Amino acid sequence: TTALGALLRCFPCERLCGGPAVAPGALPPAMPAPRRRLPPRTFRSYLPRSHRTYSCVHCRAHLARHEELISKSFQGSHGRAYLFNSVVNVGCGPAEQRLLLTGLHSVADIFCQSCKTTLGWKYEQAFESSQKYKEGKFIIEMSHMVKENGWD
After folding, report:
1. How far is residue 70 CA from its own chain's centroid?
2. What value does the mean pLDDT of the chain take?
3. Residues 131, 137, 141, 146: what is their CA dihedral angle, to the nearest 10 degrees?
4. Where is the Yippee domain (predicted)?
5. pLDDT greater than 80 at residue 122
6. Superfamily name and number for 53-148
């Protein structure tokens, strides 16, 4: 055989390279494909279990403490939403200007850090003086959160 033929030889089944076929049963049984392990669910912040919290309905990542709730009377893109002073375990997209029910605002979509679901938005800037209180606050749509820990 040539040096090139030796390099192209496929062990243990030389059949693909033109060599003799391997007898049945000569090869060990094929190993099953390894099961894909999902990464463990870890969140950047865990809120204390003693507090009433809101969590992502899709992956249960903590989002906010009840004490951070400012208002329940907001409207999101797809239904009712709550306004929070601060949230955890969320990422923020780029800011863009949107004409909302209360006027022009600069907002950035927020998403769950764990499952990447878009939850609502963060008010970056309000252009009307009556809406300035929203700046730096967060809207989370009710359809994306669940109440946990100590609700009656």
Report:
1. 24
2. 80
3. -140
4. 52-149
5. yes
6. Peptide methionine sulfoxide reductase. (2.170.150.20)
